[in-house]
Amino acid sequence: MRSNCRTLLIASWFPPIVGGASVVYDNLCQHLRSQLSVLAPRRLCSDRSVIKGCSDYDAQSPSLIDRVDYLRYPQISPARNTVESIYRVLAQDLPFRRELWKHFVGLVERDHPDVICIGDFYALSWLALRVRDRLELPVIFYVHGEEVTNESTSRIWKWETTRAVRTASGFVVPSSFTKTELALRGVPADLIRVIYNGVDATRFAPGEKDPELSALHGADGRKVLLTVARLEERKGIDRMIQAMPAIIEKVPEALYLIVGAGPLRSSLEELRDSLGLKETVRFCGSPQYGDSSTIVRYYQTCDLFVMPNRTLASGDTEGFGLVFLEANACGKPVVGGNAGGVPDAVAHGETGFLVDPHSVDDIAGATLRLLLDPQLAASFGAAGRKRAESSQWARRAEEFRSFVAGIADPN
């Protein structure tokens, strides 16, 4: 097995974009360094805006980062009919793919990778097919979970992915949930490697409550609940807000802080206000990517981390839930939804509780149990810290390197 195997990663969700996948790829870059090169976008395909901070991130990365404007053609709105859909494929998607392929081949000729790793399961499956047919390089997919189960994905992408997975050399997934979902779609189990998400247990560590944040949010003398997440439906923040009246009935000093940004901010604020919780539920905004020190301070300031994530009707769900591991690393007990890959992130009854994410009563009950039993909360936090210490990113990066080396040189 080769120890110096080189991997070219193609990823749509890459720093400085905020999100779990970005954290994974960032840490692979930090630990694999010159053994990993990356092709990533410099614009968001959702609104065509420039991703702020790309140049700064790329300049400090130990891996070689190359950027193109987009890795998928930016469609602002869905096609209105079949004719428009066909027009888009012929007039937009195919020319776009030709140009991206030329750029990609140039990177392959420059970097001489041994393995291609694709981090966009559906949108870049066509690239995997071309790599197999024209370059004869092994291709693996890094699949985070929610993209597999999301039924809103286009039919063309699904068709291309079905063909691509039959010829892929391997799959990396962060949870047993994602492995099961791939196996249900015909992927041989022996091609799937589970590499759980990791955490920097040196950076994310226990500490005293931050006086600046406590003063800013009026948290002195209060029991602080915290969610760190993008403000979207699957995170379950609406259910947590709905659970707050029952929580403050038993723990009047409870304060719920929500750190993050996203499309549901306005509707969540309206829900909070309708329940008369303006002084109990506070939105804290979202720190910029790379500002882990602020996130750590929020974890250290809270008494309990909560995110009752759920699976949506479309299949959209949480692939792992890295935030639970980060909160545990800071010595905090956690409450998460029993959905998606979160059972691999939260050891129920040991580092936290898993709840029915659709039940406000279940969410409130688990939260109150930990708030009213400091000894139980402390034991969960200590167990979570111990688990985080054995889940360092250096270990996860080595698992990835070993898997890729085996793909490049199976003998």
3D architecture notes:
- The mean pLDDT is 91.
- The protein is built from 15 helices and 13 strands.
- It has helices at 20-32, 54-60, 82-111, 125-135, 146-149, 155-165, 176-184, 211-217, 237-250, 265-274, 292-301, 322-329, 360-371, 374-389, 393-408; strands at residues 7-10, 36-41, 64-68, 115-118, 139-142, 170-173, 192-194, 223-228, 254-259, 281-283, 304-307, 334-337, 352-355.
- Helix 4 packs parallel to helix 6 (155-165).
- The strands form two sheets. A seven-stranded parallel beta sheet has the order 3-2-1-4-5-6-7, sandwiched between helices. The chain has a six-stranded parallel beta sheet with strand order 10-9-8-11-12-13, with helices on both faces.
- It folds into two domains: 7-198 and 392-408, 3-Layer(aba) Sandwich (Rossmann fold); 211-389, Rossmann fold (3-Layer(aba) Sandwich).
- It has 411 residues and is of the alpha/beta class.
- It is globular.
Quick gist of this model?
The chain has 411 residues and is of the alpha/beta class. 43% of the residues lie in helices and 14% in strands.
